[in-house]
Specification:
alpha/beta, 6-stranded parallel sheet
Amino acid sequence: MKRLDDFRMRLGRNELVPIMIGGMGVDISSSDLALEAARLGGVGHISDAMIKTVTDRRYKTKYVKAKQAQYKYNVESSDKSEVKFDLGHLAEATQMHVEKTMSRKQGSGLVFINCMEKLTMNAPKETLKVRMSAALDAGIDGITLAAGLHLGSFALIEDHPRFRDAKLGIIVSSLRALQLFLKKNSRLNRLPDYVVVEGPLAGGHLGFGMDWAQYDLATIVAEIMAWMKSENLDIPLIPAGGIFTGSDAVRFAEMGAAGVQVATRFTVTRECGLPDDVKQEYFRADEDDIEVNQISPTGYPMRMIKSSPGIGDGIRPNCEAYGYLLDASGKCAYIDSYNREVAAHPEAKRISVMDKTCLCTHMRNFAIWTCGQLTWRLKDTTLQRPDGSFQLLTAEHVFKDYQFSTGGQVQRPELEAVAAA
Ligand SMILES: Cc1cc2nc3c(=O)[nH]c(=O)nc-3n(C[C@H](O)[C@H](O)[C@H](O)COP(=O)(O)O)c2cc1C
């Protein structure tokens, strides 16, 4: 019986353990988590989602305060078109996070950064260009383009000296999305170094509509593989979404996948950036507690635990401080929903907004608990303490479980001597 360790993922000259930990914003896929994947010979991701609040928290910068002070006069206004990101600060924060991460890297693996196109930041092209260029400048091993079709993203960095040497990949959820991407980029004579094929069971935003349950990852992967063969294309494919055990991963490796991208199993590791009490919520969640809804202002369906405190919350839009989802004309769907509810309840001290959420504020505060569909199985991957809480895992434990387990098994950890998580 094969183990995932019987396979290797080749990305250019790098030969890797075929396990990629997916990007999880905002700082859920922390540097520590990404660095463990690299140390163990695989690929880890940091994320550049809300990078300024991440560096404020991690490295004591003051970017959010400065932006909020600059645009304080606009807080009461529902027109956020003036609230712009300082591109110099954006570059600085990105470089800081990447440099500080890469300076600690050990082992033969790689650390990539997850760059979501849907973070339009009131100037989509300019900000995305700065984000990607700064990450390359600071020595990131690779960039994974996510949450969007990214039809123009390669072109934004085609003049960067590392454009042809850094690993560049994209996440797609259909053959059509991949075809569009390749067509749009054909003039650049630069194929992606890998393609993550993300199915409907993944965490975060989904590349599917509310009919997501009708799709199946293995079918999409097979379709993309057949098309690539017919086109004589040789790009490593990395399936993602609902790959819960080493045996699940082996099935994809045997189909010809280069590796797998996984995330949910790592949300309950010590290195994951979620607060410990939220990790317990992930452990506790049952299948019925998980839903795909449409409250993300991005317009993409998103999967989350139903009891996330951010759902239904009617906080005033906080775009002066954050504003990562403002589109090219300074609009965000949450602002419209919020204004509608304020107008409908003029006397209310606190309103509730059910159809959209202030995703920036709530992701920043870990109050929207986005998760993969198989989160309900996490409780079976560890030990429960007498007080009902669950023992956290180490990233190394979960990584090695994917790497070495067989027969659909999940190896539980050793019982911890100390009661504290
Ligand atoms: C908590 C969480 C946050 C996520 N955030 C992002 C993100 O910011 N960007 C992204 O491209 N994918 C995101 N994802 C998707 C993962 O990177 C990954 O592709 C997917 O969840 C893999 O499926 P699995 O969780 O079933 O292993 C997130 C997933 C989880 C569980």
